[in-house]
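Working notes for the structural subgroup meeting. M.R. asked for a predicted model of this chain before we commit to crystallization trials. I am recording the input and output together here so anyone reviewing the notebook later can reproduce the run.

Input as submitted:
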Amino acid sequence: MDAHHQEPFDEVDGARVIPIRPDAADPSPPPPSPRDRNPVEHALASGLSFLRRRLTGDYEVDEFGFDPDLNASVLLPAFRALYEHWFRVELLGLENVPAKGGALIVANHSGTVPLDGIMLSVATHDHLDRPLRLLGADLVYQVPVLAHLARKAGHTLACPSDAARLLAKDELVGVFPEGFKGIGKPYGDRYKLQRFGRGGFVETALRADVPIIPCAIVGAEEIYPKIADLKPLARLLGLPYFPITPTFPLLGAAGLVPLPSKWLIRFGEPMPLADYGPEAADDPMTVFNLTDHVREVVQQMLYETLLRRGHPFL
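Returned structure, recorded in token form:
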């Protein structure tokens, strides 16, 4: 036999084997997941899918007006670029937030404009897979468009009945006890906690038998440094304050762009309240002491997180 001749089925090192049946070939690699697609393609596909669900009514809205589909597909993505690229938010202590069951996150409030609540909502949604149900001031729900969007995002009035119903449904609830005194304080008082109200959040947590999760948000104080307050204009407009910052109103609409501060959000260890019992909610001294304790914990967390962050814009 010719030395260069090979039988058709002789095995030769390095020869390519061609299967007789196409389905006997190695399986093709799985199609790329949606997150592996081109960002534009992924956004287009997500948008079309969202429109289909809206047109067919394939979405749910709860008794508070919360629309999870709208929140995840439209509202949160609108602020995710700020969260990831502008403020470069870093999270600490995520393991302290329960994966399920009711809990009350108690955080400091600052920044002149309440972007801290929005960033906190993005954090719990993206990293804990839990929507945050914020308790907001009456003013939020007196502004027509803002009130509608707040309800759609899952938030509600800061009243005991609404908070109790949410916690009874094992929701993750967030509250800012400082209110407007915290968010509207001058830049010179940055990271100094204001009074935590009358302790309504403690009463709610006691009656619902849920843990309090202290939370320190560092970075919001620098986005709109409030150096003055036009109180006459604020009264005319029915606002708690009308801020003057280094960029607003000096730069007009450009002054509304927040400064790119570096953010850290830290969740502290849960404070269980089961040992007190629901009846402790009717004891003013117990409520006062617990409120003061939570405030001290959040203040200490702020100081420690500030030291960890270092320069406010780097």
